[in-house]
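Changelog note: in this version the structure field was regenerated for every chain. One regenerated record is shown below for reference.
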Amino acid sequence: MPFTHVAQILTTDFGVVSEKLEQLQAEMPASIRWEDWKNAAIKQKLTTETVLQQALARYYELEYRDNFDVPQLPEGFSDKVSIRHLKNFVFCPFAYADGIWQVAVENPARTDLLDDLCRTWGLRYQPVISHHQAIIDLINQVYDGTSAATEEAVDNLDDQENFESILGVEEPEDLLEANDEEPIKRLVNSLLWQAAKDEASDVHIDPSPKSTVVRYRIDGVLHQVTTLPR
């Protein structure tokens, strides 16, 4: 990462004191990552994360955004890509057209997983730089958005229909030895299997007089999965 050039942009375009940036640069090892350099600058109160990310965008000649509209992704994306992977690498697609993803990224130099995904899907991508919390909020929005389709599927199910279709995954061998005459056991198995697939830390089942809401906690955030009729 050419921190010297980013520091120059911070000074000329955003008025950050050059001497303090030079001192920070001298204190940092040559192999430091952008995220660590950025956090050090924020900790020393040299500037804000938003300004740092804007400077990074100008260096790479990329668009910068503070927030995003409702994401539009290829069908099945949230079923095939783990929310944990997106949060670990801090990126999230938010628009798709003509075989090209627009992808919110924190660091455009850290895109190994994104490159692999695009090769798998046969797509190209255009990075758009944003700040960390905006991308995390976007990721949560993408995965929360899948709950509406799930609820619609539940409404359309017959009582005896296999609930694995609700969750869009192939159900494993039934640990409770359930069969088609035991839909509740099959439902529980499917919910637990999907929770494991999504790397959820816990499953919340909240009954009420009219329905039962199922939520997964993923990376500390509760995501509604489905609403089951009473």
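Spot check on this record: Confidence is low (pLDDT under 50) at residues 146-153, 157-178. The two ends are 56 Å apart (CA to CA).
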